[in-house]
Amino acid sequence: MCAQDRPPSATSAVTASLIASAVVYCASSALSNQVFGILDNTADELADLIGVDEVSPAAARLVLALRPVYEPVKAASLSCTDGVFPEFNEVNDLNDCLLLPSRLVWRGSGPGPQPPFVIRQTMSMSTIWKQSTGSAIWGGGLVLSRQMEALGHDFWAGKRVLELGTGTGLGALTAAKLGALDVLATDRDQQVLQLADVNARGNLGERNAVRTKLFEWGGDAAQELGSSRWDVVIGADLTYNRDAWPVLFETVRSVGAPTLLSASERRPNELAELRRYLDDQALPYRVVDSPFTTGYASSNVKLFWITPRRAQS
């Protein structure tokens, strides 16, 4: 918390302006981004933040009025750009970064400083459990993009890249920016695909290598997507639903290309279970540590390089 606990009697002495200042300070500090939902804040959330029993509705309205200040400060904080967060709880990466209208994703590949990607998001508190999870960037998305950057332009140049569950399109446009010849961003949600297309055009221009396609995992992916045309398959945070593993990895096997997936551990032993599942399915893989060094994106996310049989031949 950004303030020490105060006795209930102190609540009446806390003015709306002091509360607003405390929230803006918290938003700007990489060490104190612990509150989820301030962008759609309630009086209870503000009270938790500053350590009092309650605050007035007027104070909550004033903080909400500071949203134009809060959003760019939050977007540029390490909490959002490097997945530090800290987490809303011990295992989930729920955080205000998900609720920003746009995110900055710093790039590290290429000669000299690279301008960041500006990624539009459409998630909100009112829709977070109803809307597709692909409408915002989660920790695994940051890790996948940063690892792709670490592999460098020479690795991606001229390659044909397929992204499963593209969401905001971050992985796809990272591949295109790094020189991929053809990038197909797929998702089962048409609205998410429209968001990915907006982000591709906004960061790469109207004419770019990224195409989008509505696609449901499973079935004859080889026929629908082409089993021999893809050099690399990528995907971020696709393994959170254990029940979807069979169709996900059926698709990976069907396409047959080397596959780079980021996976987040949101439940105890989730990644160990994923390893056992891949072993049981006879899908060769190796695990790579996250390129980040602190916070959620470092401790809770791993990368899996999976090499189906065609990829080994």
Task: Give a nutshell description of this structure.
The protein has 14 helices and 9 strands. It is an alpha/beta fold and 313 residues long. The chain has a 7-stranded mixed beta sheet with strand order 5-4-3-6-7-9-8, with helices on both faces. Strands 1-2 form a two-stranded antiparallel sheet.
Walk across the major sheet and give the strand order: 5-4-3-6-7-9-8
SSE succession? HHHHHEEHHEHEHEHEHEHEHEH
CATH secondary-structure class of the largest domain:
Alpha Beta
Rg, Å, rounded: 21 Å
Going by helix content, strand content and strand pairing, the class is alpha/beta
Note down, in words, how this protein is organized.
It comes from Coccolithus braarudii. It holds the Pfam family Methyltransf_16. InterPro entries: Methyltransf_16 (IPR019410), SAM-dependent_MTases_sf (IPR029063). This is Calmodulin-lysine N-methyltransferase. This protein has 313 residues and is an alpha/beta fold. The chain folds into two domains: 1-76, no CATH class; 133-312, Vaccinia Virus protein VP39 (Rossmann fold), CATH 3.40.50. The chain contains 14 helices and nine strands. The chain has helices at 16-28, 43-50, 57-65, 67-76, 78-81, 139-151, 153-156, 170-177, 190-204, 221-226, 245-255, 270-280, 296-299, 309-312; strands at residues 102-107, 114-120, 160-163, 182-187, 210-214, 232-236, 259-264, 285-289, 301-306. The strands form two sheets. A seven-stranded mixed β-sheet has the order 5-4-3-6-7-9-8, sandwiched between helices. The protein has a two-stranded antiparallel ribbon with strand order 1-2. Helix 1 crosses helix 3 (57-65), helix 1 (16-28) runs parallel beside helix 4 (67-76) and helix 8 (170-177) runs parallel beside helix 9 (190-204). The protein is globular. Residues 1-21 and 27-37 have low confidence and may be disordered.
